[in-house]
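User: Reviewer 2 asked us to show a designed sequence for the structure in our supplementary figure. I'm pasting the structure tokens here. Could you produce the per-position amino acids so we can include them in the response letter?
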């Protein structure tokens, strides 16, 4: 799918680290010089910050849009903090910013990119960190990207993205070639592909919310994507990615390599993309969302995408996705009990699968009445008789309960003969016709003469075209089904 293969202008040697230093799951943040320089909140001030490098802030008193000229380059290590007030709008052209030295952007919005074909907003040839940034309203086409990282100089780079949001574009969001990326606490809304890796690149995605992309992830030519503790909604496909576990998946084509801790659901329980606190927009979860407390807390970050004040781990668990709620969760049933038709004496076994809170209780019901002692995820009875009816189970968590779909159980009894075969007196050479009428399901027949089975006489009637003396005797028929005879 990838068609980005043109090097940025005036390619020069990258000063990023070697591949051995790019450890999956590591988080890189270049902190710049010890002293920050405050620049005027103007396009010229931004250009000066880029040229000088070091740690840069802006003296903005209100939200301000600064213009980035095509072909802007970062040649000296830069740590830029926009304070949530700086929006960078690319003027025109294929490349917005190309980095030849490590760069870090925090509290910045990137917008206005109309690049097509093989263009990109940020073209990284060195390590890049994006913290609490927003990509929005970039009407770039499907052949372009918003962030692209390649080892043009033969030296791999590392892209770190956290607490950020990508929305409002038809382009792919992040593309890697022979570089690595760690993406955490980040939201992707729409676009072509959220994270696309190629040519031995590697990406680790954790605690992400990905909604409505044409394809969630793509991995080609030895590239790998590992996705864990994320909410993946309504995409057309997941290509080449592997699961690290605890993903909530709904809609789309499940081409991802799954683990038992992943769950497919019909509704992820997300609100609209909105300002829910913190520097970047998120999809909040509803109280009925299966993402609530879905994941273990192993290796969880301290906060969700919104940052300080929004702890990631509550009640000893964490939500899947970029947003952490305060709900304890209502269970979500992912597999309902199924109806059955049984014969009297057979075993009944019903089961339910529910996700959500760790603490769950169960109560099975028959025709709306509680079944005593039926308080597990499965209900069994070894020999049914008068057990036909409608069965449901109520699954309860700390914040509420949910009732399963009804499973109808039918119990069939043994056969009942309603018309017996009748005796007959015949002359030799006449025809013998015997029959029986029985009620029940799954009926099988065996006719007997003087207690011995008659070969082939296995239907509701028995006929012999020409009798002889040897055919005189006592005839019976045994009618059988799964419940008896």
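Assistant: Here is a per-position design you can include in the supplement:
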């Amino acid at each position: 799918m990838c068609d980005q293969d043109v090097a940025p202008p005036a390619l020069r040697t990258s000063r990023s680290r070697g591949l051995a230093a790019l450890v999956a799951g590591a988080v890189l943040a270049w902190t710049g010089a010890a002293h920050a320089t405050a620049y005027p909140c103007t396009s010229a001030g931004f250009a000066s910050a880029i040229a000088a490098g070091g740690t840069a802030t802006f003296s903005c008193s209100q939200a301000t849009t600064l213009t980035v000229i095509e072909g802007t380059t970062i040649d000296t290590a830069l740590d830029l903090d926009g304070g949530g007030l700086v929006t960078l709008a690319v003027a025109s052209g294929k490349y917005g910013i190309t980095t030849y030295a490590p760069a870090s952007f925090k509290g910045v919005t990137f917008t206005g990119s109309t690049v097509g074909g093989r263009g990109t907003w940020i073209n990284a040839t060195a390590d890049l960190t994006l913290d609490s940034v927003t990509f929005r309203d970039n009407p770039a086409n499907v052949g372009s990207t918003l962030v692209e990282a390649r080892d043009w100089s033969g030296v791999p780079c590392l892209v770190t993205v956290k607490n950020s949001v990508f929305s409002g574009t038809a382009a792919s969001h992040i593309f890697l070639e022979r570089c690595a990326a760690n993406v955490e606490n980040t939201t992707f809304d729409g676009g072509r592909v959220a994270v696309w890796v190629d040519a031995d690149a590697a990406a680790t995605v954790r605690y992400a919310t990905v909604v409505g992309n044409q394809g969630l992830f793509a991995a080609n030519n030895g590239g790998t994507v590992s996705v864990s503790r994320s909410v993946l909604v309504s995409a057309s496909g997941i290509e080449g990615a592997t699961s690290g576990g605890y993903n909530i998946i709904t809609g789309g084509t499940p081409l991802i390599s799954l683990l038992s801790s992943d769950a497919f659901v019909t509704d992820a329980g997300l609100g609209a993309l909105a300002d829910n606190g913190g520097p970047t927009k998120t999809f909040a979860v509803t109280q009925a969302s299966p993402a609530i407390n879905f994941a273990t807390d192993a290796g969880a970050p301290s906060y969700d995408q919104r940052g300080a004040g929004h702890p990631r781990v509550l009640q000893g668990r964490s939500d899947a996705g970029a947003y952490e709620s305060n709900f304890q969760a209502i269970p979500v049933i992912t597999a309902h009990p199924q109806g059955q038709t049984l014969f009297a004496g057979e075993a009944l076994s019903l089961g339910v699968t529910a996700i959500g809170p760790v603490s769950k209780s169960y109560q099975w019901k028959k025709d709306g009445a509680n079944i005593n002692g039926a308080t597990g995820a499965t209900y069994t009875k070894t020999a049914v008789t008068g057990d036909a009816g409608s069965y449901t189970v109520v699954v309860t968590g700390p914040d509420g309960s949910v009732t399963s779909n009804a499973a109808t159980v039918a119990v069939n009894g043994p056969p009942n003969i309603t018309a017996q075969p009748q005796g007959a007196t015949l002359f030799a050479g006449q025809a013998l016709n015997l029959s029986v009428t029985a009620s029940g399901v799954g009926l099988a027949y065996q006719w007997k003469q003087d207690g011995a089975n008659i070969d082939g006489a296995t239907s509701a009637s028995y006929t012999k075209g020409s009798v002889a003396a040897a055919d005189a005797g006592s005839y019976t028929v045994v009618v059988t089904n799964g419940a008896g005879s």
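For the response letter, you might also mention the following. The domain at 19-318 is CATH 2.160.20.10 (Pectate Lyase C-like). Confidence is low (pLDDT under 50) at residues 1-34.
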